Amino acid sequence: MQEHGGTLSLSDLETHESTWEEPISTEFGGVEVLEHPPNGQGIIALEALNIAEELGIEGEPGDEDRLHRLIEATKLAFADGYTHVSDPEHVEVPTKTMLSKVYAKERASEIGPEAATHGAGAGEHANTVYLSVVDPQGNAVSFINSIYMSFGSGLTAGGFALQNRGHSFSLDPEHANRLAPGKRPFHTIIPAMLREDGEFRASWGVMGGSMQPQGHLQVATNMVDGLNPQAALDAPRFRWLDGKRMALETSRLPDEAVGSLRERGHEIIEESEFFAEGGHWGGGQIVYRDEDGVLIGGSDPRKGRPSASNESPHSGLTAFAHGTRSDLALFALHLSKKRLLRGRFGDRQTVL
Question: Where do the segments described as Disordered lie (predicted)?
Answer without folding.
Answer: 1-21, 297-319
